[in-house]
Write a structure and sequence with these properties.
single chain, alpha+beta, 5-stranded mixed β-sheet, 4-stranded antiparallel β-sheet, 11 helices, 11 strands, rod-shaped
């Protein structure tokens, strides 16, 4: 029971209020019980003194015979007896009808002289009132009833107080438990202007702000996680890139070094410098081209694109790119069909945009068998503009499609530069399109391979 009281605020408030009200009520009743009769007696005595002085004043201006009626009336009005005596006789005024009222509570003695006589009389006024004693007796008689009423009213008041005070606190306590588990899907509906109402309003405000902060932190955490994943992927991509660069440079440098050493030392057929110098120059040019591509990629990844954007015509840039690649297509007897009727304007870096178009269309021509076709078309549907470059007579293994934009990745596992290039073409395209915020996709079609470039 003691543990239950200790753990229950409602019971403790009830007991506190009940005890306080009961004790205060008993103390007040006890004080009234003690003070009221005495105070009444004191007030009665003072009143009797005052009335006696008035009586004496009247008697002194009267004859003895006239004073008798006045004294009788005084006794009736003040519930008292008066004794008038001189040296010869004693007169008593005022009759006592009941023995229960025969107790004298106070007496006043004075002297009086009447106007028709020089004899000095002694006047004794005695109060027969027992009102103070009756009040005390009645209060003691009703003490059990009063005590029962005190207990009843104290219990009722304590119960109401415990409900009024503890009920909102209990709600706030339940809400605080939910807050500890970071559950903010609640609203404290206590509406009042007192301290508890202010606390409830503050809790609602705090919960709203905490919920908003938690959502922001969750979003920030998700964003940070995404950024970390992107950073890890980028870091992995950079490591793979530099690993591939070292591999791509190692082979031609080794060949170049061997050829130059053999020519210097004059081993065998290498004495014929005129035969091997063009091959050496070709290897040097391949290395130079690869280094330039790597430097270009590095510059693109770190450049500020916003300052270099210009508006260009899609139709014009596609036509210009096709004209540049047309000699290569003619050497392979490949027809480039282009049909772009919409004169769409793009906000791009002209040099990078032309480089991306040249690599895409150039790859389509290079990887198409001789005598096939390349189609460059523009489609606009559902508020989406798409440039499609499709080459026929070729396909990409499905396992290789996810890796087509990986640097130095070639579907030709022999890594023959005559058929596969250096593997940076599509990586450069990816870098340029990512800078411009464009999306893209490569997939096999019924006729061949298509590159889908979504312009918005």
């Amino acid at each position: 029971m003691r543990k239950r009281i200790k753990n229950s605020l409602s019971i403790k408030v009830f007991l506190w209020v009940f005890s306080a009200l009961t004790i205060c009520s008993i103390l007040i009743y006890g004080i009234v019980l003690t003070v009221l009769p005495k105070q009444y007696q004191i007030t009665s005595d003072k009143q009797l003194d005052t009335n006696t002085e008035i009586l004496v004043s009247k008697l002194q201006s009267m004859r003895y015979e006239e004073a008798v009626n006045v004294i009788y009336n005084f006794c009736i009005q003040n519930n008292s007896t008066v004794i008038l005596r001189d040296d010869n006789k004693t007169l008593t005024f005022g009759e006592i009808k009941s023995e229960s009222f025969a107790v004298t509570t106070s007496s006043i003695a004075t002297t009086v002289t009447f106007s028709d006589s020089k004899t000095e009389y002694t006047l004794v006024v005695s109060s027969l009132s027992q009102t103070a004693d009756i009040i005390l007796s009645l209060m003691l008689r009703f003490l059990p009833v009063v005590f029962a009423i005190i207990l009843l009213l104290s219990s009722l008041s304590a119960f109401i107080c415990s409900k009024v005070i503890v009920s909102p606190i209990a709600k706030i306590s339940q809400i605080s438990k939910r807050m500890t588990s970071l559950d903010m899907t609640w609203k404290c509906d206590i509406e009042s202007n007192d301290e508890i109402g202010v606390l409830a309003s503050s809790l609602n405000t705090m919960a709203s702000r905490l919920q908003k902060t938690m959502e922001e932190l969750t979003n920030a955490n998700e964003q940070l996680t995404d950024d970390m994943e992107k950073f890890k992927a980028l870091e992995e991509q950079r490591r793979n890139f530099f690993s591939a660069v070292s591999h791509e440079l190692k082979t031609p440098l080794t060949i170049l070094k061997g050829q130059i050493e053999n020519m210097i030392l004059g081993y065998g057929d290498y004495q014929n410098h005129e035969k091997y110098l063009p091959e050496t120059l070709k290897a040097t040019e391949d290395i130079e081209h690869l280094v330039k591509e790597i430097i270009a990629i590095s510059k693109m990844e770190s450049m500020d694109l916003e300052d270099t954007l210009q508006e260009v015509s899609l139709k014009q840039t596609v036509n210009d790119t096709i004209q540049t690649i047309l000699p290569l297509a003619q050497d392979k007897d490949i027809q480039i069909h282009h049909n772009i009727n919409a004169d769409m304007v793009l906000s791009v870096n002209p040099n990078l945009w032309n480089k991306a178009l040249s690599n895409i269309i150039g790859n389509a021509v290079r990887h198409s068998p001789c005598g096939n076709d390349v189609f460059v078309t523009f489609q606009s549907s559902d508020n989406r503009n798409t440039l499609i470059i499709e080459n026929t007579g070729a396909s990409i293994p499905e396992a290789d499609l996810p890796h087509m934009f990986t640097p130095f990745y070639r579907t030709d596992k022999s890594r023959n530069k005559a058929t596969g290039g250096n593997g940076l073409g599509l990586y450069i395209v990816k870098t340029i399109l990512d800078l411009h915020g464009m999306t893209y996709l490569i997939k096999n079609t019924e006729q061949g391979v298509a590159f889908f470039l979504y312009l918005n």
